[in-house]
Every structure is written in C-alpha cells, then in structure tokens.
Specification:
Elements: E1 3-7, H1 12-28, E2 31-37, H2 42-46, H3 50-70, E3 80-86, H4 93-101, E4 105-109, H5 115-120, H6 124-131, E5 136-139, E6 150-154, H7 162-175, E7 178-185, H8 194-208, E8 214-218, H9 222-232, E9 237-242, H10 247-253, H11 256-263, E10 268-272
Parallel strand pairs: 1-2, 1-4, 2-3, 4-5, 6-7, 6-9, 7-8, 9-10
Antiparallel strand pairs: 5-10
Length: 273
C-alpha cells in the first residue's frame, strides 16, 4: 500500500486518522492524500451575483488556509502529504479521487452514531464505507503509534467473500499481525449445525488455499458476536466485508460492515464485495 486518502474536516477524529496514516506511511514509505470537502452548494458556486461570488472566494481561501495549517502537524514530519480540496461534500466523489490518484486505502476518523440519528442520517464513516470500492479503515481513538498484533476477520465464508479475505490477509501480513478467523452462528433461519458450518468453511478454505483454523462463535446477533469475540481475543483491529447496500435495500436490510464500523470501539477495516 503506497497511497492513503485521509478525509479532513478539522475535527479531533480526522486528526486521529491522520496520526494512524502517518504511522503507516513512515513504516511503508507511503504518501498521504489529505482530502478536505467544502460544504458549498452548487447554487452558491454558480451564482452570478458579485457579492456571493466574492463571499465564495473568501470562504474557499479561508478553508484552504485552515486546511494548510491543520496538516502542519509534528507527527507528519518526514511524510509526503498531498492536500486535495473538493468543493462539494459528496461521498461518492471519494471513489473518483481514489481512482485518479491510485489510492489503496481510506483512513478516516469517526465518533459513530446511535439511535434514530443513525437510522435516518448515519455517520460520515458509514457513508464512506457504503460508497467506497477500496478498503476503508475507521479510527475512533487517538493512536500515537498504530500497531496491530491481533486482527479478527469475520464473514459467513461464502464464496463471494474470498476477495475480501485475500485483501485482509495481505493487510495482516503487511502489519505482521496474527489474523483470527471467526464465523458467527446465530439462531433463526441462518443457523447452521456444527457439521454444516465446518463443511462451508472447508469449501472456503479449499478455494482460499488456506487451512487456518476458523472459530465458530455462537451469539444472538452477528454484530454483537463479532464485537464480543474481538474483545475476547484482545483484537486490535476488526476486518469485515461489506456489501455497500444503498437506497431502500440499505434501509430495510442494512449492512453488518457499516454497523460494526459505527459501533466498534477498536479500529475497523471494511472491504467492499
């Protein structure tokens, strides 16, 4: 991984993400693309009124100055940082920036959301996880030196998760971390007997050419099972695939990956499938 995108909104959380990006960049000789998205409406930008045009230019210059000062952090010394400013806060624009720049990973800070606010609005991290084609690393806390010794990879071990597993495995190897594999078995229609679960896992392992042990962990919900298992194994990072569902499909079905990214206290890395 040679290029990381870090969305910057001048918050504490975006500074946490910058710290993690700096830590990884120093170890792997990578470049940080610090991205700030201005919240200017298209009507405001396209206005022909002189006063509004002057006000818009003033706001852009002010944001550029604040952005420039924000990325002058001591922990970024010796790291190549490229500032990028976009005029709209449109999350699918991140994909365009990632493709243009050849970025490998998004690293972003988040404080998460709960309750009705989550249901109707969602966190910025959740929106990024939903829209991005490249992996997203979500950071909640301050890390002076980002190190991962224990990493959990959770999925249902269906064939569609194979690319995500391979990317997670490569990331674990990059960080020299132990990757623990877990299948969360829940009651209801998705319940599998032990033999059926191991049969599915065995087929997945054959496709992945990997014989690493997978723990079957029983819980009432997948999300709580993953969080509990991660706490039990003292995980430093949770890696999980996400479908990135949108619109009504997302409203009614949701995404386990987004929920984990929203609610986990430790860093979460998502892989779009």
């Amino acid at each position: 991984m040679k290029k990381f995108i870090v969305p910057v909104d001048f918050s504490e959380q975006s500074e946490y993400a910058l710290k993690v990006a700096a830590s990884l960049a120093k170890r792997h000789d990578a470049e940080i693309l610090a991205l700030h998205m201005l919240e200017l409406s298209e009507a405001f930008i396209s206005s022909s009124e002189v006063n509004q045009h002057q006000q818009m230019l003033f706001l852009i210059k002010l944001a550029e100055k604040r952005f420039s000062d924000f990325v002058k952090k001591p922990f970024l010394e010796g790291v190549q940082v490229t500032p990028i400013i976009k005029h709209f806060k449109v999350f699918n624009e991140l994909n365009e920036v990632a493709k243009e720049q050849g970025a490998d990973l998004i690293i972003m800070g988040s404080h998460g959301t709960d309750g009705l606010k989550e249901l109707f609005i969602g966190s910025n991290a959740e929106k990024v996880v939903r829209n991005m084609d490249i992996p997203v690393l979500v950071i909640k806390n301050d890390w002076d030196d980002f190190k991962v010794e224990q990493m959990v990879f959770a999925c249902d071990f269906q064939k569609e998760n194979l690319p995500a597993y391979k990317k997670a495995k490569a990331f674990a190897e990059l960080l020299n971390a132990q990757m623990n594999l877990v299948f969360i078995n829940t009651p209801g229609d998705d319940f599998l007997s032990t033999s059926d679960a191991y049969d599915r896992i065995s087929k997945f392992q054959n496709l992945a050419h990997n014989g690493q042990e997978v723990e079957i962990y029983n819980h009432y919900t997948i999300e709580k099972g993953i969080l509990e298992f991660s706490e039990k194994t003292n995980a430093d990072l949770i890696a999980i695939p996400t479908h990135g569902r949108k619109g009504l499909l997302h409203f009614f079905m949701g995404s386990i990956g987004e929920d984990i990214a929203n609610h986990s206290k430790i860093p979460v890395m998502t892989f779009k499938i």
